[in-house]
Design goal:
Layout (H helix, E strand, L loop, with lengths): L2 E12 L2 E15 L4 H12 L6 E6 L2 E6 L4 E7 L1
Antiparallel strand pairs: 1-2, 1-5, 3-4, 4-5
């Protein structure tokens, strides 16, 4: 089975923009045919955000989502 590497960054926001006063980075491997929803769920699990409602936002080179009620954002890109 072919896999892809999924990189993620979880950081704070200020004024709605990524602030990077702190950041958590990581990489997970997923099947090449994994859906966006499955990738988001695995990243949320890795960050301890399972069950946290998030708004998906558009990103130029991947997926991004914002947990509701906190000033944070998660960026996801693929290798």
């Amino acid at each position: 089975m072919k896999t892809i590497k999924v990189n993620y960054e979880h950081t704070d926001t200020f004024g709605g923009e990524a602030n990077y006063s702190w950041v958590k980075r990581g990489t997970i491997e997923m099947p090449e045919d994994a859906s966006d929803m499955k990738i988001v769920r695995r990243v949320k699990k890795a960050l301890g955000l399972t069950g946290v409602t998030c708004n998906k936002v558009f990103s130029a080179n991947g997926i991004a989502f914002k947990p509701i009620g906190v000033c944070q954002i998660v960026f996801i890109d693929f290798e």
